[in-house]
């Protein structure tokens, strides 16, 4: 036979570069569910179920197209516990000329695969992943010589490159690159949010859900109410559903949070974009089309496209430019362990409880919950970046190191010293109160800062400002916070720090 083609669990598209020019008659595809990939972190059970079911459906799709597929089903007793072991066994059976694969999205596994040619004594061809708008080389060229990288400037380049929302005169549609200032409305129950697109589990998914409950019962989360799409056809239906029912309000309520609505007007497409069931550029083109046909306003359409060709591409570029050192950074020298309530949701802070509980049930929380609730708390409390990064990598269905790490370590924790973001997103309870209705249901009082019932975010915010004066006092975007801190009476400052110190010493109880 000719070649073995390895397709990873997040490469589920027939357009993947590893399949280009292959011959279904002679080449053989390998897709493998393996212990090491399913267990290198405490993946949410729904994430494992989504990937295993999507991998099985994709293998069937390839077989229908005439490919020979060797599918390795998960077996806890299998001696082949890693992708390398599965590939080695296939090499022994089929004696291929070479192994072909598309570059892996995570440094950890990429590093292993790049040693396979020696370990397996076989030529290994690793092809570029063309599912991104910006190649690694293009990003490195753009970043060259810049001390700090700013998403906004990168995003404009990507708009020009793709032509998305650009006029024939090469100007941004609407005369502005960014309509974020329109995207900060609080949501008070109207218009009604559509809820997520749902697919009821078919036989394959039902089998996978039972497998996950049997063998991954020590993993975070639940498989109950599994409704993710697991085929490319249903992921396309999920996109259509978003375009019809949520996109028109996506911009207005992008930053809103709600005590009784988990999904609001978000697309819930990241699990599909990240595993290959949807193509990012095709999604952006479909979204732009809704603006040109007057079915969605520009603030929604631009805001959505910016998340994909801006943020998503930007964080991937940063990841590959800086790994593996990036993962080790801890520029604010945080030492505190992650509180246990991140795994249980067992805390009196309503915003934290609701976000963690939604995460546990859905393997999903939307961006502002991740950034301004669980992320903000970890930043203010000085949690070790490695601990909080592990948590984010585990708990979401869309989590892969290349996208999770820069978002958590860089955007949330500022542990890269401001390389990714110009200022930390630190905020007191006032922000959460402005953008949600959590505080009305909370045992803490958002208007208090030093009393026993005071919202923990309030004093922790000032503690953060105070303890990081050396790092931030000269940051022009933070000057006002330091002036506000310095203006407060010494007794008030002392009371705020005392309350924060108490909270930090009793984190597990709050
Ligand atoms: P929508 O709000 O509908 O946004 C549309 C799309 O834009 C998303 O599907 C996603 O592909 C993209 N997007 C939006 N924001 C970002 C961003 N900051 N970085 C990259 N892509 C973005 N996203 C992941 O895909 N995987 C992760 O592991 C991940 N970890 C995160 C960790 C933290 C601490 C934070 C603050 C954000 C993280 N994000 C991650 C980004 C973002 O929160 C999710 O992409 C988003 O919530 C997914 O839900 P959605 O599809 O409904 O997004
Ligand atoms: C996340 C994941 C899981 C849970 N299981 C598998 C698996 O069994 N087989 C596989 O090929 N990939 C899996 N993945 C995805 C990989 O761990 C890894 O995150 C991506 O391939 C990185 O690009
Ligand atoms: Fe969160 Fe504070 Fe509001 Fe409670 S009062 S919900 S802890 S912001």
What does the model show?
By secondary structure, this protein is mostly helical. Helix content is 48%, strand content 5%. The chain contains 23 helices and 5 strands. A 5-stranded parallel beta sheet has the order 3-2-1-4-5, with helices on both faces. The longest helix is centred in the middle third of the chain and has 25 residues. It is globular, with a radius of gyration of 24 Å. The chain binds flavin-adenine dinucleotide, ligand DLZ and iron/sulfur cluster.
Secondary structure elements and pairings:
Blueprint (H helix, E strand, L loop, with lengths): L2 E4 L21 E5 L2 H5 L5 H20 L3 E5 L10 H12 L3 E5 L4 H7 L2 H4 L4 E4 L8 H8 L7 H12 L40 H13 L16 H14 L1 H4 L19 H6 L4 H13 L5 H25 L18 H4 L5 H13 L4 H15 L3 H11 L5 H12 L16 H7 L20 H12 L1 H4 L6 H9 L2 H16 L5
Parallel strand pairs: 1-2, 1-4, 2-3, 4-5
Helix pairs in contact: 2-8, 7-13, 12-13, 13-18, 15-16, 16-20, 17-18, 20-23
Bound molecules: flavin-adenine dinucleotide, ligand DLZ and iron/sulfur cluster.
